[in-house]
């Protein structure tokens, strides 16, 4: 008997990726298109339809039981809508309804991209075997998701665990979200670079002011570059410790482009965590890099679809997660 498949979509500001994924997390078919992020909403949807068209045209499609979507946010899973910050043509866009129509009425599960990454890391990655975990994406922004009691905890709208907009500095800089002193305002790649430049770091002859360039300078010993990463690590540590204190996670998994800085980020982060995670029940909290890489969005969207099927009695996600 063939194992059922799910379709997965990973929707971001630069690329729309799709895949057919089996119950062990193996990707059997892929498709992708560039995201026409500056176009109107229907044009963006046509790119999604083109990806789905490639998936539906193959002989495997007949075994697909559900569709999972991990999308840049904000998302509202309760309404089935998405409003990605970097796709202005989609504001309250009825993505679930549109995908359901294209796929012949299959069940559709929608989660934010941070929650999708969390699902992937819990199923196939560094959080596997942990019943209570925080997984984070530290990149252009800072997002995240939670696993509580052994299950993905997306929350009513699919945004639970959005650690990037926890305030960790009451008098900090205003954040575009409307808050002040948010983790993202200090720890995202662009803000690491911004802080370095504001404090006197000078880029090399190529003029590169990215976080990766700051990381290179920090490895070479530039004190301002080092300090910018240490400040980012401190903000992450404060947010992680607050989360651990609130819901008793025992592992924090960090992925995204900034995590590629490696020890530049993780060494000061673990050191700072000792100053914030001080209560007895959070002292054993571990921090580790993510391992699912660029496929995290697709694998996580598939896990969300399998979890939705489990809730409807079609498949047991625990048996799927266990391999």
Structure description:
This protein has two domains: 5-112 and 294-321, ATPase, nucleotide binding domain (Nucleotidyltransferase, domain 5); 126-291, ATPase, nucleotide binding domain (Nucleotidyltransferase, domain 5). The chain has ten helices and twelve strands. The chain has helices spanning 41-56, 95-102, 113-124, 183-187, 189-198, 211-219, 223-247, 263-276, 296-311, 317-321; strands at 5-11, 15-22, 27-34, 64-71, 75-76, 81-82, 108-112, 133-138, 142-148, 151-152, 251-255, 286-289. Helix 3 crosses helix 9 (296-311), helix 5 packs across helix 6 and helix 7 (223-247) packs across helix 8 (263-276). The protein is globular.
**What does the main sheet amount to?**
5 strands, mixed
Residue ranges: pLDDT <50 for 5 or more in a row? 310-323
Residues in helices, as a percent range: 25-40%
What CATH calls the topology of the largest domain is Nucleotidyltransferase, domain 5
Sum this structure up briefly:
With 323 residues, the chain is an alpha/beta fold. It contains ten helices and twelve strands. 37% of the residues lie in helices and 20% in strands.
Keywords for this entry:
about 325 residues, alpha/beta, Nucleotidyltransferase, domain 5, 2 domains, 5-stranded mixed sheet, 10 helices, globular, ATPase_NBD, ROK family protein, ROK_cs, ROK
Secondary structure layout plus pairing:
Blueprint: E1 5-11, E2 15-22, E3 27-34, H1 41-56, E4 64-71, E5 75-76, E6 81-82, H2 95-102, E7 108-112, H3 113-124, E8 133-138, E9 142-148, E10 151-152, H4 183-187, H5 189-198, H6 211-219, H7 223-247, E11 251-255, H8 263-276, E12 286-289, H9 296-311, H10 317-321
Parallel strand pairs: 1-4, 4-7, 8-11, 11-12
Antiparallel strand pairs: 1-2, 2-3, 5-6, 8-9, 9-10
Organism: Streptomyces huasconensis
Protein name: ROK family protein
Family: Belongs to the ROK (NagC/XylR) family.
């Amino acid at each position: 008997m063939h194992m059922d498949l799910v379709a997965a979509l990973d929707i971001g500001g630069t690329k729309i990726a799709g895949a057919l994924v089996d119950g062990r997390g193996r990707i059997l078919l892929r498709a992708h298109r560039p995201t026409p992020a500056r176009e109107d909403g229907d044009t963006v949807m046509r790119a999604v339809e083109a990806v789905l068209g490639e998936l539906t045209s193959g002989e495997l499609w007949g075994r697909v039981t559900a569709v999972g979507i991990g999308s840049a946010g904000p998302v509202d899973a309760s309404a089935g809508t998405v409003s990605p910050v970097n796709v202005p043509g989609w504001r309250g866009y009825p993505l679930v309804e549109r995908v359901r129509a294209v796929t012949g009425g299959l069940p559709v599960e929608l989660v934010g991209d941070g929650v999708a990454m969390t699902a992937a890391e819990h199923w196939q990655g560094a959080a596997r075997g942990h019943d209570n975990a925080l997984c984070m994406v530290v990149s252009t922004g800072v997002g995240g998701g939670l696993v509580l009691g052994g299950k993905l905890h997306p929350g009513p709208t699919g945004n639970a665990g959005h650690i990037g907009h926890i305030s960790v500095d009451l008098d900090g800089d205003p954040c575009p979200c409307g808050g002040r002193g948010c983790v993202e305002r200090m720890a995202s790649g662009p803000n690491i670079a911004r802080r370095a430049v504001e404090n006197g770091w000078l880029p090399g002859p190529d003029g590169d002011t990215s976080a990766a360039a700051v990381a290179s300078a920090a490895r070479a010993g530039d004190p301002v570059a080092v300090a910018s990463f240490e400040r980012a690590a401190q903000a992450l540590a404060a947010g992680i410790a607050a989360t651990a204190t609130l819901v008793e996670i025992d592992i924090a998994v960090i992925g995204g482009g900034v995590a590629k800085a490696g020890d530049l980020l993780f060494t000061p982060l673990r050191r700072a965590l000792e100053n914030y995670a001080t209560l007895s029940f959070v002292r054993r909290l571990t921090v580790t890099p993510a391992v699912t890489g660029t496929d995290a969005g697709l694998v996580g969207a598939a896990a969300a679809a399998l979890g939705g099927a489990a809730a409807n009695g079609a498949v047991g996600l625990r048996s799927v997660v266990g391999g």
